[in-house]
Specification:
- The complex is a heterodimer of chains A (about 290) and B (about 270).
- Helices cover about 80% and strands about 0% of the residues of chain A.
- Chain A is built from 11 helices and no strands.
- Chain B folds into 2 domains: about 30-90 and about 165-265, Rossmann fold; about 95-165, no CATH class.
- Helix content of chain B is about 35%, strand content about 25%.
- In chain B, helix 2 packs across helix 3 and helix 3 crosses helix 4 (about 150-160).
- Chain B is globular, with a radius of gyration of 19 Å.
- Classes of the chains: A mainly alpha (about 290), B alpha/beta (about 270).
C-alpha cells in the first residue's frame, strides 16, 4: 500500500542515518576531552602551592607539595589510614541511608497531604540553611558523646534536601502528563506509582546529591567535635595531626576527605546524567 | 452536494435517533472564575456525534475547543447542561503526544492497557497489535525522544486506542506536525477509524484539515463558544486534502469563520 510505504520512508528519513564510528576511538577522545581541564587545574594548584612554599612564607610549618604527597604515599602504605577511611565510610553510609529513608517518607507525606505541607514546607527549607555544626551541642546533650550524635546531625543536615527534592519533583510533574494519566484511568496509588514518582525521579536524584554533600560535611564536623571511644575515623586522624602541628599529615587527610567527597559526587552526577539522557533531556553531543 | 450552513439552535441534521448517538451535548455551558473576572467559555452548546461518525469542530481562538473536549472526556464538569457519552469509553489525544519520557514506546502503550486492568499475559500481544496498527512495530523499544514528531503522535494514537475507546477525542493532534507528515497521518487516521468504527470528535483550527477528515464540521463562535454553523461533508471514497471538493468546503467554512472574526474586530 502506497501510504504505508510513504510513511515508512518518512520515518526513516526523519530518524536520519545511524552514526557508525569506531566506538573505542570515540570513547578515548571523550575521556581525554573530559580529563585534561581537570588535570590542568590540579597542576596549577600544585604550581601555586610550590611557589608559595618557595617564597618561604610560614616556612616553619608550611610544607611543599612534594613533602605532603610523599607523606600521603607513606600513609597509604599503612593500615591506619585505610582503617580510618573504613570507619568513616561506614558512618557515612549508615547516616546517609537513615537520612534517605527519613527524608523520603517526610517528602512523600508532605507532598501528598496539604495541611502537612502548610505546616512543614517552610520548616524543611529553613532546616537546610541551618549550619550542621550548630546542631552538635544539642545532639551531644541529647545522645551524649558517641556515634548516635553524629548520625542525628547527619540526618538533620541531609534529610531536608532529600525531602525537598522529592517534593519539588512531585510539584513539577508536567500537567499535560497528569492529564494524559487521568484520561488513561490512573488514579490514587497507581497515579503515584506509574506517573508522579517516575516523573519526579530527576529532582529526587538532585536532592539526594545535595543531601550527600550535607551528610558528608556534617560527618566531618562530627568526627572533629564528638569524642568516640574506639577505632578512629578520618576526623580523629586530622585532630591528632593538628595537636602534633603536623602540617603534611593534616593536609594529606584533607586531600583524602576531598577525594572521597568528589568521587561520591561524581557517582551521583553520573546517575543524574544517565537518567536525563534516557529521557532525552540532554543533547547527545552536549555538555558531557 | 453540500447542505447549507444551519442557523444555531436548530436540531442537528444527522444522528438523531438515540441508539446511534455516541456523544450528546445538550445546552452545555461552562463558566470559569467568579464575579467580574468571570469568563463564559461555552454558551449553551448542543451537538451530537453519531456512532462511527467523524465530527470536526473548528473555531478561532477563544472558542472553548479544549474546554469542550475536557467536558466530554469527563476531566471537567459543565456549569449547566448535560454531557452524555452513556457507557462508551473515551480516549483523549492532545496536540503534544504527552508520552511518558521514561518509558519506551511499547511500554507507554502497555501502561494504558495496565491502567484498565488487562491481564499481564494479554498485554504484550495487544501492545504489539496496537503498534502494528500505527505501523510502528519496529520502534517499540525506542524512547519518545528517539522518535520523530509524527511517530510520537502515532504512539499517542496507539495509546489512546489502548484505552479501548469507542470515542476518540482529538485536540489538534496534528497541529505541530509538518504538512507532509500530517497528510499521511490523515490517511492513516481514516483507515484506523474505518477499521475500528470509531466515533471521533476532532478539534482543529485548520479548515482544510476539518474538510478533509470530517463527515460533519461544526463551527464555533469565539468568546463565548457557541455553535454557529454545521456542515455536512459528503463522503465518497478516499478524500484528498488537495481535491476540489475539500477546497470547496474549506472555502465555505473559511468565509463563515472570517465573518465571525470580523465581529470581534474594530
Amino acid at each position: 500500500m502506497a501510504v504505508d510505504q510513504a510513511l515508512q520512508g518518512l520515518d526513516n528519513l526523519e530518524l536520519g542515518p545511524r552514526t557508525a564510528g569506531r566506538r573505542a576511538a570515540r570513547l578515548a577522545r571523550k575521556t581525554w576531552a573530559a580529563a585534561w581541564p581537570k588535570l590542568l587545574a590540579i597542576a596549577l594548584v600544585l604550581l601555586a602551592w610550590q611557589l608559595v612554599h618557595l617564597t618561604g612564607w610560614k616556612h616553619l610549618v608550611l610544607a611543599g607539595p612534594s613533602t605532603v604527597l610523599s607523606d600521603l604515599w607513606q600513609m597509604a602504605q599503612h593500615g591506619q589510614l585505610w582503617a580510618a577511611v573504613g570507619v568513616t565510610m561506614k558512618r557515612a553510609l549508615l547516616g546517609y541511608v537513615l537520612a534517605l529513608i527519613i527524608g523520603s517518607v517526610i517528602g512523600v507525606l508532605v507532598a501528598r497531604i496539604p495541611p502537612l505541607r502548610a505546616a512543614l514546607g517552610s520548616i524543611i527549607t529553613g532546616l537546610q540553611t541551618m549550619p550542621s555544626i550548630a546542631w552538635y551541642p544539642f545532639a551531644i546533650i541529647l545522645f551524649s558523646q558517641g556515634t548516635a550524635a553524629i548520625l542525628f546531625v547527619m540526618v538533620m543536615g541531609a534529610a531536608p534536601s532529600i525531602a525537598n527534592g522529592l517534593i519539588s519533583g512531585v510539584d513539577y510533574t508536567p500537567p499535560l502528563l497528569l492529564r494524559a494519566g487521568r484520561t488513561m484511568g490512573l488514579r490514587g496509588v497507581a497515579l503515584y506509582r506509574y506517573l508522579i514518582l517516575p516523573a519526579s525521579l530527576p529532582a529526587f536524584v538532585a536532592g539526594m546529591k545535595q543531601g550527600w554533600a550535607f551528610a558528608w560535611r556534617s560527618l566531618m564536623a562530627g568526627e572533629l567535635v564528638v569524642t568516640i571511644v574506639g577505632a578512629p575515623g578520618l576526623g580523629v586522624l586530622l585532630d591528632t595531626n593538628q595537636s602534633n602541628l603536623d602540617f603534611a599529615g593534616a593536609t594529606s587527610i584533607i586531600i583524602v576527605i576531598l577525594i572521597i567527597g568528589i568521587v561520591v559526587d561524581m557517582i551521583f552526577t553520573k546517575a543524574d546524567t544517565a537518567l536525563r539522557r534516557r529521557r532525552g533531556l540532554l543533547e547527545s553531543a552536549g555538555s558531557t | 452536494m453540500t447542505s447549507p450552513a444551519q442557523a444555531p439552535g436548530t436540531s442537528p441534521a444527522s444522528a438523531s435517533s438515540d441508539d446511534t448517538v455516541a456523544v450528546r451535548l445538550t445546552e452545555v455551558s461552562k463558566t470559569y472564575g467568579h464575579g467580574p473576572s468571570q469568563l463564559l467559555a461555552l454558551d449553551r452548546v448542543s451537538l451530537t456525534a453519531g456512532e462511527g461518525e467523524f465530527v470536526c469542530v473548528i473555531g478561532a481562538s477563544g472558542c472553548g475547543k479544549s474546554t469542550l473536549l475536557n467536558l466530554v472526556a469527563g476531566l471537567d464538569t459543565p456549569t449547566s447542561g448535560e454531557v452524555d457519552t452513556s457507557t462508551r469509553r473515551v480516549g483523549l489525544m492532545f496536540q503534544e503526544p504527552a508520552l511518558f519520557p521514561w518509558l519506551s514506546a511499547a511500554k507507554n502503550v502497555e501502561l494504558a492497557l495496565r491502567a484498565r486492568g488487562v491481564p499481564r499475559t494479554d498485554r504484550r500481544e495487544q501492545t504489539a497489535e496496537l503498534l502494528e496498527t500505527v505501523r510502528l512495530s519496529d520502534f517499540g523499544d525506542k524512547r519518545p525522544h528517539e522518535l520523530s514528531g509524527g511517530m510520537r503522535q502515532r504512539v499517542a494514537l496507539a495509546r489512546a486506542l489502548a484505552q479501548n475507546a469507542d470515542v476518540l477525542l482529538m485536540d489538534e493532534p496534528f497541529g505541530a506536525l509538518d504538512a507532509m507528515t500530517r497528510d499521511l497521518l490523515h490517511d492513516e487516521l481514516d483507515r484506523i477509524c474505518a477499521q475500528r468504527s470509531l466515533t471521533v470528535l476532532f478539534v482543529t483550527h485548520n479548515v482544510r484539515e476539518a474538510a478533509r477528515l470530517g463527515d460533519r464540521v461544526i463551527v464555533l463562535s469565539s468568546r463565548p463558544g457557541r455553535v454557529i454553523a454545521e456542515h455536512e461533508v459528503p463522503r465518497r471514497g478516499q478524500r484528498r486534502i488537495d481535491s476540489p471538493e475539500v477546497a470547496h468546503v474549506a472555502a465555505i467554512l473559511t468565509d463563515r469563520l472570517r465573518e465571525e472574526m470580523g465581529r470581534h474586530g474594530s
